[in-house]
Amino acid sequence: MSASVTKPIVLRLGEVRQAQKAWKQLEEIATVLVADSPNREEFIKDLKGKYSNVQYIARTVASADQTGLFDEELISHLPKSVISVSHNGAGYDQVDPIALAKKNIQLSNVPSLVDNATADTHVYLLLGALRNFNLGHHALLNGDWPSNPKAAGVPVAFDPEGKTVGIVGLGGIGRNILNKLKPFGFEKFIYYNRNKLPEELENGAEYSSFDNLLATADIISINIPLNKHTHHLFNEEVFAKTKEGVVVVNTARGGVIDETAFIKYLKNGHIRSAGLDVVENEPNPRRELVELPNVLAIPHMGTHTHQTQKKMEEFVVKNIENAIQTGKVISLVPEQKSHEF
User: Fold this and answer.
1) Where do the D-isomer specific 2-hydroxyacid dehydrogenase catalytic domain residues begin and end (predicted)?
2) Which single residue of 117, 178, 273, 333 could bond 129 by disulfide (Cβ 3.0 to 4.6 Å)?
3) Given the residues 131, 175, 253, 272, the one annotated as active site
4) Closest-CA residue to 283 (of 117, 62, 56)
C-alpha cells in the first residue's frame, strides 16, 4: 500500500484565490480532494460515495452555492470519519455548530484576521454616511452639479465632533473600529455587549444598556454575529427607540436587520443615512434598500483585499494541519467550547 493511501483525507469546498502555496504544502501530509459535486443533491450522494472517507473539510462562503448551507439536514449526511470543518470566514452563520458538535465534529472559523480590513471598510462607510457622500456621488452621476454649483445641491452634512458613536458588539472588529475612529474627533464612544468588558479592552468607551445606546447614539455601529438570538435584532421596535437622525452602519451580517422596518425608517428620515457592506439576501439585495439615495452600500467587500484573503485562506490550512497533528483545530467556535471532543 502506498504512503499516499494512508494520508488523512481533506475535502476542499470552494475556490482558493491566494493560498495555493499553503494548500500545496498541505498535500505533503494529506490527500486533498477538490469537491466537484454540482449541487446539494449530488454532494449528499457523494458523501456516501467518493467522499465517504473524508476526515477534514474546508469550506468557503461561496461554496454554499454548490452544497447549500451546512445545516442540520446536510450535517446528518456527513461521514462518521469527519473530524473537523474549517470555515473560511469570521462569521459562520452558514454552518450549524450545534449539529456538528452532536456528531463530534469540530468547527473552526477565522476570527481575528478579518478585523483590520473590516474595520477599514466600516470607517469608510460610517464617514461616508455621516457626510452625505453617497448623495453627492448620485448627484454627480446624475449631472446635477452644473445647475447646483454648491456641492451639486447635496444637503449640508455633519462633522464627527459632538457626535456619540454607539458600538453594538465590542469584539475584535468593534475594538478595531473604535481605535480607528478615535482620531476623527468624535465626542463620545459607548458600547453594548452581553457583558461589560475589562477596562483595558474598553479603550475609553463606556458600557451602556442597549436601550440607552439606542436613545443616545448619533451613529450606531453594528458588529455582532448572526445567530438565532441576533436575527432581526434591529427591527421596528428597536428603530423606534433610536435617536432622530441617527446614522446606521453595518458590516456584520445583513440578517441582523429587519430590512422592511429599516427601509421604512430610512424613507421617513428618522434614520438619516446608512452605510452597508452586507444585506440580508446576498447576493440579491433588495433594490428598494440599496438604491435609496441616503444609503451608501457596497457588495460585501469588507475583507476584499489580497493580503486579508491570503491570511484567511492560510489560516484555514493551519486549522486543518493542527487538527491532523493534534486532533484539535486552533480556533474552535464559541458554541463548541464546552463540548468534549
Assistant:
1) 19-333
2) 273
3) 253
4) 62
- Does the annotation count 244 as an active-site position? no
Give CA separation, 47 vs 9, 10, 37, 43, 109, in Å.
13, 13, 10, 6, 22
Which residue, among 116, 135, 223, has the nearest Cα to 176 in the 3D structure? Answer: 116
Residue type, 3: A
Q: Which is the catalytic residue, given 282, 288, 291, 304? A: 282
Cut 0.70: pTM above it: yes
Residue 32 neighbours by CB distance under 10 Å: 18
In total, the chain counts a number of residues equal to: 341
| CATH number for the segment(s) 3-113+306-336 | 3.40.50.720
Tally of CB atoms within 10 A around 247? 29
Grid cell, residue 273, equals 443615512
In the CATH scheme, what is the homologous superfamily, with its name and number, of domain 115-297? NAD(P)-binding Rossmann-like Domain (3.40.50.720)
Determine the average pLDDT of the residues in 22-44: 98
pLDDT at 339 over 50: yes
Does position 2 have pLDDT exceeding 60, yes or no? no
**Which cell numbers in the block locate residue 4?**
499516499
Q: What is the largest CA-CA distance in the chain?
A: 79
314 catalytic per annotation: no
Question: Three-state DSSP class for 155?
Answer: coil
How are the residues of the chain apportioned to helix, strand and coil, as percentages rounded to the nearest 5? 40, 15, 45
Model pLDDT for residues 235-294, shown as the tens digit of each residue: 999 999 999 999 999 999 999 999 999 999 999 999 999 999 999 999 999 999 999 999
* Every domain range in the chain assigned CATH 3.40.50.720: 3-113+306-336, 115-297
Buried/exposed 303-332: b ≥16 CB within 10 Å, e otherwise: beeeebbbbbbbbbbbbbbbbbeeeebbbb
Q: What is the pLDDT of residue 309?
A: 97
- Cell 428618522 belongs to 270
Whole-angstrom CA distances from 284 to 55, 278, 281, 302 are: 34, 11, 5, 17
Q: Tell me which of 12, 87, 175, 300 is the catalytic residue.
A: 300
Task: Enumerate the β-bridge partners of residue 58.
Answer: 12, 86
Active site residue 335: no
